[in-house]
UniProtKB/TrEMBL annotation:
Coiled coil: none annotated. Belongs to the acylphosphatase family. The keyword Signal does not apply. The active site is at R18, N36. This is acylphosphatase. It comes from the Bacteria. It catalyses: an acyl phosphate + H2O = a carboxylate + phosphate + H(+). It holds the Pfam family Acylphosphatase. Its EC number is 3.6.1.7. PROSITE patterns: ACYLPHOSPHATASE_2, ACYLPHOSPHATASE_3.
C-alpha cells in the first residue's frame, strides 16, 4: 500500500471538488480524506495500490466540471491501513 498527501490549488472550492472526489475515491477503492483549507486550496490524503493512487491523482489534476486546477503538489505519507473515505471540514 501507498499513501500520499495532495494539495490542490486553483478554483477548487465551491465547485463540488470534495464531494466529487469522494465518489471517485470510493469507485477507485482508495481510503483517506479530503478537506478545504482556509487558503483556498484543497488537501487530501489517499491510500491504496500505486495504480489506484495514480488513477485518483489523474482525476485530481483535472477536477470536476467548473473547477480550475492550477497545481497539485504530491508528497509521500506513511500508510495507516485506513479504510473508507471521508469529506472533512475546513482546516
Amino acid at each position: 500500500m501507498k499513501r500520499v498527501r495532495v494539495i490542490v490549488s486553483g478554483g477548487v472550492q465551491g465547485v463540488g471538488y470534495r464531494y466529487t472526489m469522494r465518489m471517485i475515491a470510493i469507485d477507485t477503492g482508495v481510503a483517506g480524506w479530503v478537506r478545504n483549507r482556509g487558503d483556498g486550496t484543497v488537501e487530501a490524503e489517499i491510500e491504496g495500490t500505486p495504480g489506484q493512487i495514480d488513477e485518483v491523482l489523474a482525476w485530481m489534476a483535472e477536477g470536476p466540471p467548473g473547477s480550475r486546477v492550477d497545481a497539485a503538489t504530491v508528497t509521500d505519507a506513511a500508510p495507516t491501513g485506513a479504510t473508507g473515505f471521508e469529506v472533512r471540514g475546513t482546516a
